[in-house]
Design brief:
- The chain is an alpha+beta fold.
- Helices cover about 25% and strands about 20% of the residues.
- The protein is built from 13 helices and 21 strands.
- Strands 14-18-13-17-15-16 form a six-stranded mixed sheet. It has a four-stranded mixed sheet with strand order 1-10-9-8, with helices on one face. Strands 4-5-7-6 form a four-stranded antiparallel sheet, with helices on one face.
- A hairpin with a 5-residue loop joins β2 and β3.
- The longest helix has 18 residues.
- The two termini are about 40 Å apart.
């Protein structure tokens, strides 16, 4: 979004959860046991384990934001909420090391020939924290809860029905082919609450899942406490019961610099950030051997200027081309992101399996001036508009940077600073002309389709998940092709067409790819995601929903 680097990421995430459920980000970082001498860009600094994992201990984790509750069918989790939620709830699916959604709480996913029906087989012997067995009825209650929820129903919009042929089998039928259905089950939509929680009038404050930790207490804006689930269904590769930790205390510390200070002084054991200054500070601390640091190396949220195609001036392609050709992503990274991030020229980050070098019109001031002139000739009006940014001084600096770039080619730009809660609503309702935003961090772009479909677009003033109101039959057709096959090459070709349509229509003007990092004290081990239930390697960092900083704490432990 349009505040500082942390808040720019947080608003779309909160939005993603306010309207859908979350969005994931790609993973890369090394696993524990890799030791690096210095912490250059992209380098991980972790300490070797020196022996088997140790059970016990209390972990203190500093969150960047608070959540509004813990019922996955109704509450807004965002990245921090997902971090907490995955200690209490197990997702039905998770990403393997190749970025493929595979069974986690589920034992198997089996589609029919045309992907209009999926059979979910559940693991036997799994129980909720209240002792009730996990069964098909509980999964159906969860799916139906999402279907009825104004916040999350769009995540599973293609689902037309669910049934239970036996207690451990769920059959999900679709209105249309959905070849990558398990992808949506890696995040909030895949978290299965106990039926008793859904029946509780105060369900948001009394979470009951199957996860590695049981809920103990929550004092909003102060701390949330979970404790080890002694009856958890998972064991590690050596047969040791999981989780290792006795207790986790989550503390919201919304200021990035304060979270870094808390880690540096030993007040907390783990934090995350994507704020450029904080990332540089953490790299310095890691290079001195004072902390450990894991960085995200794959697809992360991309930040961009989002343009409202349903209102002047950006209902005109000349105006959109003018902004695109007057925007220099490299300068943005050098000046605004302090060289921490990568410039973005297309939707997917280089290194992603979905990446194709299909770019927006290139930065070219003469072309930008020509587009400004073409707009004025076509409309009889100067190219003037308001850029919405967040309410911080850093956000103001970001806006001033872009304003200066655009005004040098003849545009007239005002900057409007907006508080976070209003910022979200402005994006959803279309109450903006241009707005700073960040999104699209999932390892698999299927998770992002809801934001790009014409059917999720709505007029200005109405709730629209297609925020720029980009209604395009060619994009819709490409997205449908991507969901009609599991062939990676065919899916990539479909998403290439999506990128091509974005480059031609310009609903987004790309700026950079975020650089989330997780910092940990020198006593923490298992910082990244541990092996999956079948023993296969997991996507190291990120993956639930579209949040590239989230790590499961199931196999995290302390040396002393």
């Amino acid at each position: 979004m349009g505040t500082d680097r942390r808040a720019r990421r947080a608003v779309p995430a909160a939005l993603v959860l306010a309207l859908l459920l979350g969005v994931a980000a790609c993973g890369g970082g090394s696993t524990d046991g890799t030791t690096t001498a210095t912490a250059g860009p992209g380098a991980d600094v972790t300490l070797p384990s020196e022996g088997p994992p140790r059970s016990g201990g209390n972990l203190r984790f500093a969150l960047a934001s608070e959540s509004d509750g813990w019922n996955p069918t109704v509450n807004r989790w965002a990245g921090d909420g997902t971090e907490v939620g995955l200690t209490i709830f197990d997702p039905l699916a998770a990403y393997d090391a190749e970025g493929m959604a595979v069974p986690y709480l589920a034992e198997a996913f089996v589609p029919n020939a045309d992907f209009t029906e999926w059979t979910i087989r559940l693991r036997p012997g799994v129980r909720f924290h209240n002792g009730q067995p996990l069964d098909a009825g509980a999964v159906i209650r969860a799916i139906e809860g999402h279907q009825q929820s104004p916040l999350t129903r769009n995540a599973i919009a293609p689902v037309s029905g669910v049934s239970a042929p036996d207690p451990l089998t769920v059959v999900v039928t679709m209105r249309e082919p959905w070849s990558s259905f398990p992808v949506v089950l890696t995040g909030q939509a895949g978290a299965v609450p106990a039926p008793t929680q859904l029946d509780d009038p105060d369900s948001s404050r009394h979470p009951v899942g199957t996860g590695p930790f049981r809920f103990v207490s929550w004092t909003p804006d102060k701390e949330l406490v979970v404790e080890r689930n002694p009856d958890y269904w998972r064991r590690d590769e050596a047969g040791q019961p999981l989780p290792y930790l006795d207790r986790i205390v989550f503390r919201p510390i919304t200021d990035d610099s304060q979270r870094v200070n808390a880690l540096e002084t030993g007040d907390v054991d783990m934090i995350w950030t994507s704020a450029a200054t904080s990332v540089k500070r953490l790299r310095d601390l890691a290079s001195q051997g004072r902390i450990q640091l894991v960085e995200q190396h794959g697809q992360t949220e991309v930040s961009f200027v989002m343009l409202n195609l349903a209102a002047p001036p950006f209902d005109d392609i000349h105006a959109r081309r003018a902004v695109a050709t007057a925007t220099d992503a490299r300068s943005w990274v050098d000046v605004i992101a302090e060289g921490v991030t990568q410039p973005a020229y297309t939707l997917f980050r280089p290194g992603s399996r979905w990446y194709s070098d299909i770019r927006l019109p290139a930065f070219d001031l003469e072309s930008a001036r020509a587009e400004v002139a073409a707009y004025q000739e076509a409309t009889g009006q100067p190219l003037s508009f308001t850029l919405s940014v967040g309410a911080t001084s850093t956000a103001r600096q970001q806006g001033e940077f872009l304003k200066a770039a655009w005004e040098q080619v003849g545009m007239r730009v005002d900057i409007k600073q907006v508080e976070a809660s209003t910022y979200i609503l402005d994006g959803v309702l279309g109450n903006y002309q241009a707005i700073l935003w960040a999104q699209f961090g999932s390892p698999d772009p299927d998770y992002e389709q809801v934001w790009w479909l014409s059917e999720t677009s709505a007029p200005v003033g109405s709730i629209s998940l297609n925020f720029p109101r980009h209604e395009d039959p060619a994009t819709d057709a490409a997205l449908a092709r991507a969901r009609s096959t599991q062939d990676v090459d065919e899916r990539k070709a479909a998403y290439e067409e999506v990128q091509r349509r974005f480059a031609e229509d310009i609903p987004y003007v790309w700026l950079d790819y975020s650089q989330p990092v997780v910092g940990a004290s020198t006593s923490v081990r298992g910082i990244t995601n541990g092996p999956l239930p079948d023993g296969q390697p997991s996507w190291p960092m990120g993956g639930p929903g579209s949040f590239s900083m989230v790590t499961r704490l199931t196999q995290t432990w302390l040396t002393g």
